[in-house]
Design goal:
Helix 14 links the parallel strand 11 and strand 12. Helices cover 56% and strands 11% of the residues. About 1% of the residues have low confidence. It contains 22 helices and 14 strands. The longest helix has 25 residues. It has 599 residues and is of the alpha/beta class. It folds into three domains: 87 residues, Gyrase A, domain 2 (2-Layer Sandwich), CATH 3.30.1360; 269 residues, HUPs (Rossmann fold); 182 residues, Orthogonal Bundle (Isoleucyl-tRNA Synthetase, Domain 1). A five-stranded parallel beta sheet has the order 7-6-5-11-12, sandwiched between helices. A four-stranded antiparallel beta sheet has the order 1-2-4-3.
């Protein structure tokens, strides 16, 4: 917070003058004054008592008096026990709001390009055997938003995706198409390619489960039945053929993956996320395989009698980790080792951030250790952005059984709910049909994104579509409507030839508590963006936007703006409104959310 940088040196100077003591910055504890006390910023004086050798109240009074006499911006002070509450002059808050309004980059850290570190953010990471679902939506929204927040914190960002386009799960869909697909294609069925392939994956598992049940009826254990079922044996054979380069199998693989990629692109576009670089497991796993074999040759890893390759991690307090199967095929870890090597060879990465659910905590702990063992200095600096799972009110989703919330279906449902609620409330009656449809989409996507991003990423969450599209409460549409309301005020001001002042030379004689609180909240935005970048937390930005919008609506309800007869008061209120609108737009953009001009 900027005001802290103003007050802190003054406090240090006061302690030097009053008590011949010069504290470190960490000893000067400043915080926002509680709303039930008078003041803007509070100094905790308890750490200074052993130097002042006086009571807390006397120490606070002496420091407060010094600050009023020596810092122009400190208007007055009051003491509550060991807390010194400082009231900042209204001129300071007004000048800060003016500065925010004029500053094109308000909220962002802007320095020269040669000072930028490069952060690579991996997110999405889909499998090409099924369409994107609700869990992928949370992943994509978190990854995209973290990327935008890091850019605002002066990072050069490369948004990347690793597509899991090979492996036994892919072969299950391929086998299902060969055996039960009836030569269906996206073209002859009208289905999105990722949906078609996802249906085939479900079809495979339906047959697979039936085979397991039959084998268990014949006396096999469940584990034996799962291993010996004809379908899984055929899928494994397809994988072996693919890895050996069988032309027919490779051609089918390319065709079906092509269907899926076209489907993914449609989903990504509607969701509003993109990537600067896409890696494919089919290209990275061989690099990883070579690294594992090098590690085996150098004695870093070991080989069992069946030919499988393992890493002994007991020295790190973990277990033994499989890196290559006995038939020579690779595992996810193999691919991630290869992908990491390729990325660090291609980009001069300072931060590598993996946006992956907390179910993979162990995986990334092991990946960092293995890369370090293989001699890569950057191995242990990898950051796993571990986030919680997203569920529905009805519980967890299961891809194999087709019990998932499809991303495309969810987005379409959100638009329908937005249309229904907006029509019932008459929110968009003044818009043309084309404008209304565009706004329905904006409201729906804003509701979806905000509902997911406002939650602390580390926590599991339950997504409720209807609760997310509410024009009241902590929701995207509430914040979007606040922005549209501000734009309406600005349009009406223009129609009445009321100019939005870029300088305010005459302050109102009185500034209300709500006006001041709103100005103070505006000035917090840069610190909020910085905190969100430090903690990789879009929720910090989301909830700030809500609090700002809520504060504005309370102000709007109690304070006339254009109808205000006192010109300095009107000008200040119009400036505050315009700056709030600007900050809401900037904050929501960091979340990947558009805000409408009219609602």
């Amino acid at each position: 917070m900027k005001i802290e940088k103003l007050i802190q040196p003054g406090v240090i100077a006061a302690l030097k003058k009053l008590y011949d003591f010069e504290p470190g910055d960490n000893l000067v504890q400043l915080q926002n004054t509680r709303k039930d006390f008078i003041g803007d910023i509070t100094l905790v004086v308890f750490p200074f008592l052993k130097y002042s050798k006086k009571r807390p109240e006397d120490t606070a009074t002496e420091i407060g008096k010094y600050l009023v006499e020596n810092i122009n911006e400190v208007k007055s002070y009051n003491v509550v026990k060991g807390f010194l509450n400082l009231e900042i002059d209204n001129n300071y808050w007004t000048s800060e709001v003016l500065s925010a309004w004029r500053d094109e980059y308000f909220g962002k850290i802007v320095t020269s390009e040669d000072q930028q570190e490069l952060a690579m953010v991996e997110y999405s990471s889909p499998n090409t055997n099924k369409p994107l679902h609700l869990g992928h939506i949370r992943n994509n929204l978190l990854g995209f938003s973290i990327s935008e927040i890091l850019k605002a914190n002066n990072y050069q960002v490369v948004k990347t995706n690793i597509v899991n386009d090979r492996g036994i799960h892919i072969c299950k869909s391929m086998l299902a198409w060969q055996k039960w697909g009836n030569k269906e294609t996206p073209e002859n069925t009208g289905k999105k390619g990722d949906h078609l392939v996802g249906e085939l994956y479900v079809e495979f598992n339906k047959h697979f489960k039936a085979e397991i049940a039959e084998l268990m009826n014949n006396g096999l254990s469940q584990k034996e039945a799962e291993d010996q079922a004809p379908s899984i044996q055929e899928a494994r054979e397809l994988l072996r053929k693919w890895e050996s380069g069988d032309p027919e199998v490779v051609e089918l693989w390319k065709t079906m993956n092509g269907w899926v990629y076209k489907g993914f692109d449609i989903t990504y576009k509607r969701l509003g996320v993109d990537f600067d670089k896409i890696y494919y497991e089919s290209e990275t796993y061989l690099v990883g395989k070579k690294e594992v074999l090098r590690g085996l040759k150098e004695g870093i890893f070991y080989q069992k009698e069946d030919g499988s390759v393992w890493a002994d991690l007991t020295g790190e307090g973990l277990d033994h980790k499989l890196l290559l199967r006995s038939d020579g095929t690779s595992v996810y870890m193999t691919q991630d080792i290869g992908t990491a090597k390729m990325r660090f060879s291609e980009f001069n990465i300072d931060k590598m951030i993996y946006v992956v659910g907390n179910e993979q905590n162990y995986h990334f702990q092991v990946l960092a250790i293995l890369l370090d063992k293989l001699g890569y200095a950057w191995g242990k600096s990898l950051h796993h952005f571990s986030y919680g799972m997203v569920e529905l009110p009805s519980g967890k989703m299961k891809s194999r059984e087709g019990k998932v919330v499809d991303a495309d279906d969810l987005m379409e449902e959100m638009v329908q709910v937005a249309r229904k609620m907006a029509e019932e409330l008459g929110k968009l009656d003044s818009l043309s049909e084309e404008e209304a449809e565009r706004t329905y989409e904006m409201i729906a996507m804003g509701a979806l994104k905000y509902f997911i991003l406002k939650v602390d990423p580390k926590k599991n969450m339950v997504f409720n579509p209807e609760e997310s599209i509410d024009f009241n409460g902590n929701t995207g549409p509430f914040i979007q409507y606040t922005h549209a309301r501000i734009k309406s005020v600005l349009r009406k001001a223009s129609e009445k030839n009321i100019e939005l002042k870029k300088e305010i030379n005459i302050l109102p004689e009185e500034i209300s508590f709500k006006e001041k609180e709103l100005m103070k909240r505006i000035t917090l935005f840069p610190a909020v963006v910085k905190e969100a970048g430090t903690n990789y937390s879009p929720a910090v930005v989301a909830n700030y936007c809500f609090e700002l919008a809520k504060e504005f609506n309370q102000f709007y309800h109690d304070h006339p703006i254009l109808a205000e007869r006192n010109e300095p008061t009107r000008d200040l209120r119009l400036l505050i409104s315009a700056t709030v609108g600007k900050v809401i737009k900037s904050g929501m953009k960091l979340l990947g959310i558009e805000v409408p001009e009219r609602m």
